[in-house]
Amino acid sequence: MASVADVAVKLPPLLQGIDLEKINYNKNVPILMYHYVGPVEPTFNETRMGLNVTPENFRAQMKWLHDNGFKTYTLSQYFQRVANNQSLTKKPVIITFDDGYKDVYDNAIPIMKEYGQTATLFIIVDAAGPVYMNWDEIKKVSELGFEIGSHTLTHPRLTDFSDVALR
């Protein structure tokens, strides 16, 4: 089984040596953020319903992006291109997934690979397991070209922390 050390959180190689605070972000790029990609269950509360996209709807969205000439970038790919004054494609889009739910691995990743797309996944590091992707799945997703980022260790409510505590 893979461990945290196998997918250690660090500055991605594309961004090493780049001062992200000095980049001119004058390019408007849509960012599509997802949480769950799975079938609707009768037990879902209103919050879960609002965060869920069915696999059929997700496929239709990814097909639409593909058929309409959009190119997906990971966040690091985007920042690296902007920092180095490299052009983006005519229709760039960034896709992210929060939390690292297993249904993203089971449902979203295969669809995105089918359409030649990529994304950045923000994983709750200490939550890897049955409801969330496990470390082997996270490592496989990374090997497929998807970017892995940290969504904190435990997903605390960061707005409740002082600036000192956040540091």
Structural features, described:
The protein has 167 residues and is α/β, with parallel strands linked by helices. It is built from six helices and seven strands, in the order ββαβαβαβαβαβα. Strands 1, 4, 5, 6 and 7 form a five-stranded parallel β-sheet that branches. The chain has a two-stranded parallel ribbon with strand order 2-3. The model is unreliable at 1-9 (pLDDT under 50).
Give a brief description:
The protein is of the alpha/beta class and 167 residues long.
Keywords:
single chain; 167 residues; alpha/beta; five-stranded parallel beta sheet; two-stranded parallel sheet; 6 helices; 16% strand
Topology:
Elements: E1 31-34, E2 36-37, H1 46-51, E3 52-53, H2 55-67, E4 71-73, H3 75-83, E5 92-99, H4 102-114, E6 120-123, H5 135-143, E7 147-150, H6 163-166
Parallel strand pairs: 1-5, 2-3, 4-5, 5-6, 6-7
Helix pairs in contact: 2-4
Radius of gyration: 17 Å
Average pLDDT taken over every residue: 87
Number of H/I helices? 6
SSE class: alpha/beta
How far is the first residue's CA from the last residue's CA? Answer: 31 Å
Strand content range: 15-25%
Biggest β-sheet strands, sense, barrel? 5 strands, parallel
Output the helix-strand order: EEHEHEHEHEHEH
State the share of residues found in helices, binned by percent: 25-40%
- What is the multimeric organization of the chains shown? single chain
Instruction: State the shape.
Output: globular
Taking pLDDT < 50 over at least 5 consecutive residues as the criterion, the unreliable ranges are 1-9
Record field, number of beta strands: 7
